[in-house]
Amino acid sequence: MPHMPGRRLADMVMVPTNPVVRRIRARDLRDALALGWRDFLASPTQLLFLGVIYPLVGLVAGRAAFGGDLLPLFYPLVAGLAFVGPLAAVGLYELSRRRERGQPVSWLNTLDVFRSPAIWSIAAMGLMMLTLFVLWLGAAQIVYDRTLGTLHPASAGDFVRLMLETPEGWRMILLGNLVGLAFAIVALALSVVSFPMMLDRQVDWIIATQTSIRAVMANPLMMMLWGAIVGAALVVGCLPAFVGLAVVMPVLGHATWHLYRRTVG
To answer: Which of 87, 116, 168, 191 could form an S-S bond across to 126 if both were Cys, CB 3.0 to 4.6 Å?
Structure first.
């Protein structure tokens, strides 16, 4: 309906060019997770939006990886889910935003994102994160080619054996994780508050990204701890054949909204 975008625009918050970034503490991370869990329990129908689709994507990626030349990229594919997770969780931010304002909430409200005035900024930021994801896969492939790729593992079992029992395998583990850490820091700095901020306020993707970077610079230890929490949660969610992501991803999505609300004034 044509009048909906106008109402949504009026509902957004006008902000200055440089929004205030607050200092946060470990208690804020804990509270964000608790509120994320509360939102998940209050609106469990969002599983249709993310909790089912996301594990299926992971399963398809894993099957493709073990089926051919993508085997060395299986771990980078799983780790890279954190790069595109903020984009996939935009609909969950909308649910948390509505709950915070006392508005009715249903899984259909995840589609309100497409009527938001910020949709093009969100799309631009999403393209940036997808590009970072592709670059990460390319870097992981280069690390593999320069280390374990010289030994040409013939199967998944051979790949694991060579990875754990050869100097080339240990070099791949070390270099791969160092490169992955660098990419993860960049992804965290770009996206930790930018996606929910664009949905909530009249800012473009440039201001949102700058604010996200400032938030990380103002809270380096807490943001690194948040990144570690997200990474550990994703690992736990992936262990039972990715089924755990049906809970982990929605909770993290809602929690990210509440972390943004505590970080940006």
So the answer is: 87
